[in-house]
Description:
Pyridoxamine 5'-phosphate oxidase family protein; Split_barrel_FMN-bd; Pyridox_Oxase_N; alpha+beta; Pnp Oxidase, Chain A; 25% helix; 8-stranded antiparallel beta sheet
Amino acid sequence: MGKIFESITTHQQDFILKQKMFFVATAANEGTVNLSPKGLDAFRIINEHQVAWLNLTGSGNETSAHVQQNPRMTIMFCAFEGSPLILRLYGKARVLHQGDSDWKMYQALFPTFTGTRQVFVLDIDKTQSSCGMGVPLYDFVEQRQQLVQSHDKQGKGGVQAYWKKANQLSFDGDETKVLELSGLECES
């Protein structure tokens, strides 16, 4: 049976810092639920009640569209080595774009990537730990670099052109406002 906590415990923080990947789940009021795996050096614990993660440009922009409508977010970590554990962080999220006043403060917590699109900040309502005995054991080899290399090859202008082409609407047709909120011109 899982245990519920009001904030990130010291044990949970130690566990998070060792993880190589995490999963993010969001949903708008209607439509598709989104669940995305995340890797690279893209997760930070701000304090026991707040975390932030860096979102790189990808094929969709579901999380942003969802959070702008409904701020609920769940982040999940799984132990793929060592003792079994599943840890979920529940709370209300906000999405930060380059045009937001808090952008520089939070973006500075992460490495610089050409494909940086947003930073998400999650204010934690509760955490849950459960056994994770059904999660298989895996050996970590390395972080994939293809996404970072693709962004570097495109350059910042190419990445922003991709936002215009493929990241303005969610799969369900909801606006992400990625251009507008990043301070970039948006042509109809």
